[in-house]
Design a protein that fits this description.
Elements: H1 2-24, E1 42-47, E2 53-55, E3 61-65, E4 73-77, E5 81-83, E6 92-97, E7 103-108, E8 113-115, E9 121-126, E10 134-135, E11 138-148, E12 165-169
Antiparallel strand pairs: 1-6, 2-5, 3-4, 3-11, 6-11, 7-10, 7-12, 8-9, 9-11
Length: about 170
């Protein structure tokens, strides 16, 4: 029994030594936390997307305005006539502002929208000149394609909410 008591006393001594040693090796450190509040992103339309004056033909026609700063209008199908000199065709233009040192992602909603009181003209926007990873402030240009039906009556065909541009911080 003496041997058992000796072993028990030795185990107790080792356990106490381990607890004392682990307490001696303990350390603490404070961790820092911070936050940077950035400016709101603002989007201001500088110029509306305008396909200009078009004379409807006998066939459905497709007209495109590119999304470059220098507008370029093309007829890619059908027999409509692009009238020059009467109205200024132009890509849509937006000024994007926010925190200068931050990069952003810019997108234009995919899908088709319609122009006109009875949705006569199908409109599809695109924004090849709005790139990811640019720093603020920037200008963004939006182009699009319309399909004008054959023999469409004269008139102004528009949609004040034809597309949505979205800008987010990365």
């Amino acid at each position: 029994m003496k041997l058992g008591k000796i072993i028990l006393n030795m185990c107790t001594a080792v356990a106490v030594a381990l607890v004392a040693t682990s307490t001696l090796n303990a350390a603490t450190e404070d961790g820092a936390a911070s936050v940077d509040i950035v400016d709101f992103i603002t989007i201001t339309e500088s110029r509306s997307l305008n396909f200009g004056d078009i004379a409807s033909g006998t066939l459905a026609s497709t007209i495109t305005i590119d999304s470059a700063a220098a507008e370029n209008r093309t007829l890619t199908g059908g027999d409509a006539q692009l009238v020059t000199g009467a109205a200024l065709e132009a890509s849509g233009s937006f000024l994007l502002t926010g925190s200068i040192a931050n990069t952003v992602s810019v997108s234009v909603a995919d899908g088709a929208s319609d122009l006109g009181p009875s949705n006569e003209i199908v409109f599809v926007p695109f924004a090849s000149n709005c790139t990811t990873g640019v720093t603020m402030p920037i200008s963004c240009f939006v182009g699009g394609t319309i399909t004008v039906p054959a023999a469409l009556p004269a008139g102004t065909y528009s949609n004040p909410a034809a597309y949505v541009i979205t800008v987010t911080y990365e």
